[in-house]
Amino acid sequence: MGKFGDLKTCRRKFLLSYFSEDLAENCLNCDNCNTTFERFDGTIIAQKALSAVYRTGQRFGLTYLIDFLRGSQSEKIWDEHKNLKTYGVGADISKNNWFDYFKDLIAQGYLKQADGQYPIIALTEKSDEVLRGGAGVELVKVKIRDEKRRRLPPWPSTRIFPNYSTNFGAFEPPLLKMKMCRRMSYSPTRHWSKWQPICR
Ligand SMILES: [Zn+2]
User: Fold this and answer.
1) What is the DSSP string of the chain?
2) What distance in angstroms lies between residue 95's CA and the mean position of ligand 1's atoms?
3) Ligand 1 center to residue 46 CA distance, Å?
4) Model confidence over 115-160: pLDDT tens digits?
5) pLDDT tens digit string along 20-39?
6) Which of 48, 49, 67, 165 has the greatest CB tally within 10 Å of its CB?
7) How far away, in angstroms, is 54 Cα from ligand 1 center?
8) Mean pLDDT of 182-191
């Protein structure tokens, strides 16, 4: 069963099919039936994703598959996988967008994700039509998210407070254990990672 929450198609139809009942038409009543999702022909994207799952043996999770598709140089990617044709074919799509597309493919039943500790991705009967038959796949348009946007470090930044434990209970000001400077300038309008020590 795909993730119900990620579903972009009729929920009632989805639930009934889960219980082996078929609803010919969409119910036109659930939240998804009442939302207009912009869709596009995502066949090529789907083929790349499914092929990555197939080529790597249906034994990896989303993160690995996406790194593989994007041609990551990481040592985590198996050497033998770096020789596969699918390796790096999805480099033009950001990580976040790949996550969205995978969730969509899972919700539509083109892929399935195992429950539990190892949520590996595997093919389904529907995958075959896409990989072999070239059946078209519609995907929901996602916001193209900017990968280059700077990621903020976890709070508090270990760069600013190298010796400070990150194990806070509540919102404890990270001032007390500063060795060099005893005060910080901190401004409510700036992100905490920009707060500066005041040494005087
Ligand atoms: Zn519906």
Assistant:
1) ---GGG--S-HHHHHHHHTT---SS--S-STTTTS---EEE-HHHHHHHHHHHHHTTS---HHHHHHHHTT---TTS-HHHHTSTTTTTTTTS-HHHHHHHHHHHHHTTSEEE--SS---EEE-HHHHHHHTS----EEE------TTSPPPPPSSPTTTSTT-----SS---TTTT-SS-SEEE--TTS-GGG-EEE--
2) 30
3) 24
4) 888 899 999 999 999 998 778 999 988 765 544 544 544 444 445 5
5) 777 788 888 888 888 777 88
6) 49
7) 31
8) 66
pTM above 0.85, yes or no: no
Question: Average pLDDT over the chain, rounded to whole?
Answer: 79
> pLDDT band for position 173 (50/70/90)?
very low
Cα-to-centroid distance, 110 and ligand 1 (Å): 19
**Fold adopted by 38-140:** Arc Repressor Mutant, subunit A (1.10.10)
**CA 36 – ligand 1 centroid, Å:** 12
Q: Domain map of the chain by residue range?
A: 1-36, 38-140, 153-200
Q: How far is the CA of 92 from the centre of ligand 1 (A)?
A: 33
State the Cα–Cα distance between residues 185 and 89, nearest whole angstrom.
Answer: 47
